[in-house]
Each structure stands twice: as structure tokens, then as C-alpha cells.
Amino acid sequence: FPDELGLSVPLTEEEQKALLYKPLEGEWGSRTRDQECERIIRSIDQLCTLDVAAPFELPVDLQAYPTYCTVVAYVTDLSTIRQRLQNRFYRRMSSLMWEVRYIEHNAQTFNEPGAFIVKTAKFVSDLMLQFI
Fold first, then answer.
1. Considering the entire predicted model, what is its pTM?
2. 59-69, pLDDT tens digit by residue?
3. Alpha-carbon distance 103 to 79, whole Å?
């Protein structure tokens, strides 16, 4: 019990680890989640060296595009996905794939149909999905 009313009792490291989600067999393919996350992080790093990925590497600049957050409901980018992979945020590979698809979805939502940025977003998303 806590020493004072209203305070909490800290979790031990063991208790915290026991509460974390443990992926089921097959949720990350034939490898472990850790192996797959590290592999995909390396692919994002390689992708970000290409000019085509530059618009999707970091969060959209809200100073340049102030209405972006009012139009796009679920904001994401390659650096956010990379950070989430590092933190083992995704429970399943399908969740990661869903978020990667949102790069293209957001570009389609915010920009004119057929715009170069929309085509570029599709290319980047498809490339990531192929690698995953």
C-alpha cells in the first residue's frame, strides 16, 4: 500500500515486463518482433536517404500547412513509424502496415487528386509495404 492516501505504489521492473504484450507466434511472420522491428528500422533509414522519401520523412510542417491537422485525422510519417518500431509500439505487423498505408491516405486526403505528392506517397507506401 502507498505511504500516503492518494499516492501510488511503483511497479517493479519485473511487474512492468509481465504486463507488456507478448506477440503470439506468427504475428510477426517467421521472425520475432524484435528482429522484424530492427529490420524494418534499417529499411526506413535506407529509404530516407532517397529524395523521393523526403516529404514523408518528418511530420508535416504546420507552420507551412496550418490546415493539415484539420483535414487529416491520423497524422503519421516515417520518423514516427520508426520511433514506434524502436519502442515496440505495434503489437502486430498488420498494425504497422495499416499505419504505413496512412502515408498515402493522408496525401490523398490533403492534396488534389493526381498531384505529384500523391503519386510519390503511393510509391513510398508501396515500397515500404513490399519490404515489410
1. 0.86
2. 999 999 999 99
3. 12
